[in-house]
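Let us work through a complete example step by step.
Step 1: write down the sequence.
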Amino acid sequence: MSSNSEGLRALEEQRLGPVLRRRDQVQPGTTDQRLLDTEGDSQWVHTDPWRVMRIQSEFVEGFGALAELPSAISVFGSARTRPGTPEYETGVRLGRALVEAGFAVITGGGPGAMEAANKGAREASGISVGLGIELPFEQGINEHVDIGVNFRYFFVRKTMFVKYAQGFVVLPGGLGTLDELFEALTLVQTRKVTRFPIVLFGTEYWSGLVDWLRDTVVAEGKASERDLLLFHVTDDVDEAVAMVTKETGH
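Step 2: predict the structure and record it as tokens.
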């Protein structure tokens, strides 16, 4: 093969690590050259490959921060729950009772019901964890959190909630709370996780959802009757703690 042919082939085919580029997808220069070049466009920090590195770093930081946690329960609920309300005080009692039962408490780290559970855990001298999320309207990690990790990506944060908890207690909440609830129900239903109790706290608040699941979703064959056994509903803090304690074998 002539040198001209080899040169043409080099322009038509380029290997960048595991990636093969050909024809008009060949990029000028080498990876090292682009790494060491201090000039040029900074848009690379917004590309998908760079996002993958950020995602990886969030997993590494989360795993590192939480790896040595003792048995824990994730508590979810509305960020809009106001201090001093019965709902807020229930969150405080729940956080305290979980610590007294030997659990660490994990929340989303924000205000409202999350703050209440963190407060109860801290007052009981337990481990109070907050897993925050970067949002335009987020108020940051509440003051009752002892170990806090802020995430850019919802799915990384959601992995931490499940990986480092032995169960969920779900206080009245909005769309974010429902998201976490149905994520957990799906993981248990599909057996991606096992021995994972899910407790809905507040029979009046959750009754409409439970009725819809039973009378519409199950009735129309979109779920099975046994799927209604994936969660428990209660109004009693001690009963909620007893449920997660029994199912986790704690």
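Step 3: interpret the result. DSSP finds nine helices and nine strands in the chain.
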